Amino acid sequence: MATVKMIFSLAPKMQWSLHQLDISNAFLNGDLDEEIYMKLPLGYADLQGEVFSPNVVCRLHKSIYGLKQASRQWFLKFKTTLVGFGFDTCHGDHTLFVKEENGQFLVVLVYVDDILIAITDSTMASALRDQPRSVFQLRDLGPPKYFLGIEIARNEEGICLTQRKYVLDLLETTCFSDCKPYPVPMKQDQQMSLTSFSRRRKKKVATVSEGDEDYEVEPAHPSDSTLALLTDTKQYRRLIGKLQYLTITRPNITFAVSKLAQYSSAPRKFHLQAAHKVLRYLKGTIGQGLFYGKDDDFSLRGFSDADWGACPDSRRSVTGYAIFIGQSLVSWRSKKQDMVSMSSAESEYRAMSVITKELLWFTYILKTLRVPFSLPAYLYCDNQVVLHIASR
């Protein structure tokens, strides 16, 4: 999805014309490299009017839906076809294909059977569509309006990506269409674990010498009913899965959803209540999304941070980063680190390591897309110790 958002962010900057294609019955186009047999479909004998032995099977000459290797064989077929048309495969992302011909640059991005085309000259789009049409049965959907559940609106100022319809369907499915909106997806002072949760409450304490007000942390004491395990864990997992798909265009809920997803194995009632607060936040921010403007800034900038020992169960830190191309937010992440860090500097350094690898991958993709991007890529961090270590 980072590549998809990268294409949409670069389209206004590079003045690319976008088109969308859809392959009909994509998996049926795959060729099989080995012998595969299947049982006779129910009703086949009655349709043919014959009586077959119980041991009779069918040999497949083409892939079908439900076959384990169907998706792989379809992609190999599509890849071979595009390479035959003169496209080059991007080794940084094998679903991205580029071609330069007669001074024009073409980009093809495939996601299963949905194809996104970016081209510098819109008049060449028809010729590009005719080439795969000679091999596959496809539909020309014109300029993309709805791609992978993302609503796309383009004007002279740029491209806007939202998931408004998806949010409305999610609220209706969960019966939160008429709920009261919540100002934030998750409070910053909320601490959550596998078995309990608490909030850091501020309590006023008057000092004797100066009379100023100080604060101390007082944990909340949740009731036993909120600590009970959920009887229907599928409900919680289904909700978290839908919220994870929503993070494609909503970076403001990424941290909350990532935190709630850690408790999918044994969710409790307070975990579900926290997920419901995310739904209430979405109620008040239905139309929010991403906007990619039309400017000439191609600088690559990344911001990293880490919350040391944020997980009370494993004491592991949380890595967070965001990557911008110019003023366009293209990639972000919030994930618990793989191992325990002994200091805040160590956790920050691990976060910088993760985003550095992502920035290197971005530079490779940008060069493949012929973007006028020049090094260096900038990485920002607020930890002075880590900056001194990294500068050595």
Automatic annotation (TrEMBL):
Top-level taxon: Eukaryota
Residue ranges occupied by any Reverse transcriptase Ty1/copia-type domain in the UniProt entry: 3-187
Name of the protein: Uncharacterized protein LOC109128318
Organism: Camelina sativa
